[in-house]
Design brief:
The chain is α+β, with helices and mostly antiparallel strands. It has 18 helices and 31 strands. Helix 7 crosses helix 9, helix 9 (487-501) runs antiparallel to helix 10 (505-511) and helix 11 (513-528) packs across helix 14 (578-595). Residues 419-449 are annotated as: Disordered.
């Protein structure tokens, strides 16, 4: 394979300003016609209404609009004119379209994604196609076509908008003139590509309620790593395997200009490789099977830049200035570790030598993965504001939220809890100051794990910190607690956290903590044999064996697609480090443990129907329910384990129902495993029966090969 054989071939891409096609309108009486098509990528910053394609008379060079996006962001195909008028070449007022015959769809034109547009134009008929589907048709009367009648052969030039703002806000791919009998569906097969950020891959990023990412940066001793993946995809959302490099850079979110270097002349965005830091612009990441992974740090603080928000820009260095070869992260606020207590507590813990390290824990990604589970409510019921739960027969749907919205749920409780325990916290703080050093007694110097007023070795302060903490804090707390507390103390702690947080899902994550950590440690030591990394292919059998043991299911093995998801969760390629293993284990163990319950194990083992297809992503589920020919019938659903929920997130190992709603929109609902386990044997009805009895769930969908 040549060096550039898999590179993006840009010769078929162009800006709208460079678009030009010559067509021949052949007429025999009134039967003249022609057809053309192209892929279009229209930015949301484009002005509306606006002309996309003009018809230009080859003889007079006068022009009139042919294809327009109106002020409602709907694309409009206009008829040919035998006397083009330069004054109407660019539509700036949609009222000018009133009274003109035209073909137009009923829906808005998609923005910032590749869309295939096909047009068939004749003296008596206009046809408009979107992604190979006929969406608009207009038959013209003889009076409407009289102006455009002519005899013989007439040459017409199709050209892009002469509005500079529109011309630079729109890109085209593979424009071509077609036979009037050509199939528009067939023309959609050769798809363009675009770059996108995979938000579900984010690790060690805290997302605020306003959608802004909070990332700890600054000096070398303070800043922390975070990870993101970008994917090169075709128009249908499938990854495209091209051997190209992607570069990451830090820009201002408001104007797109590069962020300046620090006062120490350090690059604002750094890439981490083998423990060393490099200017991210000097260390591009190469796509592998359509995906490039970045491990980054930010050295510049927002407070040093007038409190402006940043943004990470990913682009193809040799991709010119095409917007579809650029991708942008959410707005970022880069803060120092002392900016607030919560962030500080995440950073000050050092990486433990054993299992479940703070910096490498997959559980840290759960603060980010909100896009996986939107907040919209189930139509039939209103969720209770405390439990965020909607009843599903004798089971329930959970309203997805960040950490089950535990910070909001316990706000009033926390104030009371804090006041009543402030004296105890002060006393413990004083004892801690007088206690031996960590080298003498690690646990003796930590007030979180010593309750002075009871026989329970887990303190009220630890309970308080767990309820209000983020996932990385909870990970460290559980690791320390389970190393010395008894099983009874851990169970009591789980019940207390569930009570004070208002989220019962925390209970199961705390209860499995001891086994998860101990079994994970033994498993890694067995497969690594004191090596820094292991070959993924060499340990895949052992991973499957552990999964089947924990799930108590030996009738169904993991598929190739399942292992690919595990590899993505781990964030590794051919070799897996301990950090990669911990990410994978913290996701896989809760899933396997949930499947060990009979109510789910039977569904997992079922071959016909296949209730749970395997490990799939949100995007794969959506692609299967949408399909190449449009959305499936309302009520079609797929069950999946969310890839953005890892231990100790309260929803780790839970099931999500992705389904087509009554209006053909896609919905994601979290199914409460607590109620599955508690009620599965009591109500006499299996979960499949309950699911199919729901008004919005009527038919089990399948994962298509194309979506995988």
């Amino acid at each position: 394979m040549g060096e550039n054989e898999n590179a993006v071939d840009l010769k078929d891409y162009s800006f709208l300003k460079d678009f030009a096609l010559e067509v021949e309108e052949r007429r025999e009486g009134e039967e003249g016609s022609f057809a053309f098509c192209f892929w279009v990528y229209l930015l949301s910053s484009a002005p509306f209404p606006s002309t996309l394609i003009r018809q230009v008379d080859a003889d007079t060079q006068c022009s009139s609009p042919l294809l327009v996006v109106n002020d409602k962001k709907r694309i409009v195909l206009l008829p040919l004119s035998s006397s083009p008028n330069d004054n109407a070449a660019d539509i700036k007022d949609s009222t000018l379209l009133d009274g003109l015959p035209h073909a137009s769809p009923e829906s808005d034109f998609p923005l910032e994604k590749w869309t295939h547009v096909g047009c068939q134009v004749s003296a008596g008929l206009l046809r408009l196609y979107i992604n190979g589907v006929l969406v608009g048709e207009k038959t013209q009367s003889s009076s409407e076509t009289q102006d455009s009648k002519s005899n013989g052969l007439r040459k017409i030039d199709l050209m892009g908008s002469d509005n500079s703002e529109t011309a630079l806000s729109c890109c085209l791919y593979s424009p071509k003139v077609l036979s009037i009998t050509s199939s528009m569906k067939d023309e959609c097969k050769a798809s363009p590509v675009h770059l996108a950020v995979d938000n579900s891959s984010a690790v060690d990023i805290e997302k605020g309620g306003d959608g802004i990412w909070n990332i700890v940066g600054g000096k070398a001793s303070c800043r922390r790593n975070f990870s993101l993946d970008v994917v090169l995809m075709d128009a249908s959302g499938e990854p495209v395997d091209m051997e190209i490099e992607i570069v990451a850079s830090l820009i201002y979110a408001d104007n797109g200009t590069p962020v300046e270097k620090t006062s120490d002349a350090e690059a604002p965005l750094l890439s981490s490789y083998d423990g060393m830091e490099f200017d991210s612009c000097d260390r591009p990441s190469k796509l592998l099977q359509g995906r490039a992974s970045f491990k980054l740090k930010i050295s510049q603080l927002s407070s040093k830049c007038d409190n402006k928000l940043f943004c990470i820009k990913f682009n193809v260095p040799r991709g010119g200035k095409y917007p579809f070869l650029e991708a942008f992260s959410n707005p970022i606020r880069c803060i120092s570790r002392n900016r607030n207590n919560r962030t500080s507590s995440v950073i000050i813990w050092k990486r433990p030598a054993g299992f479940l390290s703070v910096n490498g824990s997959q559980s840290s990604r759960v603060n980010f993965g909100l896009s996986d589970l939107p907040r919209s409510a189930v139509h039939e019921a209103k969720p209770n504001p405390l439990s965020k739960r909607v009843r599903l027969g004798n089971y329930s749907f959970e309203q997805p939220d960040d950490e089950c919205n535990s910070h909001v749920q316990i706000a009033s409780q926390a104030k009371t809890f804090s006041r009543t325990n402030s004296k105890m916290a002060l006393e413990e703080s004083e004892v801690r100051d007088k206690s031996p050093s960590d080298s003498d007694s690690t646990r003796g110097g930590n007030s979180c794990y010593k309750n002075l007023g009871s026989g329970n070795s887990i303190s009220d302060l630890a309970l308080f910190k767990y309820c209000l903490g983020v996932s990385t804090e909870r990970t460290v707390l559980l690791k320390d607690i389970t190393s010395s507390a008894s099983n009874e103390e851990i169970l009591e702690f789980a019940d207390q956290v569930s009570l004070y947080s208002g989220c019962s899902h925390h209970r199961s994550q705390i209860r499995i903590a001891k086994r998860l950590i101990e079994e994970g440690t033994r498993f890694w030591n067995a497969i690594s044999q004191n090596n820094q990394h292991v070959n993924w292919e060499n340990v895949s059998f052992e991973i499957e064996e552990q999964f089947m043991r924990i799930s108590c299911c030996n009738t169904r093995s993991l598929s190739k697609q399942d292992f690919e998801i595990l590899r993505r969760v781990a964030g590794c390629r051919d070799y897996m480090t301990q950090e990669n293993f911990e990410k994978m284990w913290c996701w896989l163990y809760p899933v396997a443990f949930a499947l060990s319950r009979s109510v789910l194990r039977e569904m997992w083992s079922s071959k016909s129907p296949r209730w749970i297809e395997g490990f799939i992503t949100k995007e794969e589920a959506e692609a299967s329910l949408q399909g190449p020919g449009g959305s499936q019938e309302p009520g079609t659903f797929i069950l999946r384990f969310p890839t953005s929920r890892s231990w100790p997130h309260p929803d780790a190992g839970s099931l999500v129902v992705t389904y087509v709603g009554p209006n053909y929109s896609l919905h994601h609902r979290l199914l409460s495993l607590d109620h599955i386990i508690d009620n599965g044997e009591k109500n006499g009805r299996l979960l499949p029966e309950v699911l199919l009895a729901e008004p919005n769930l009527s038919r089990l969908g399948r994962i298509s090969a194309r979506s995988r």
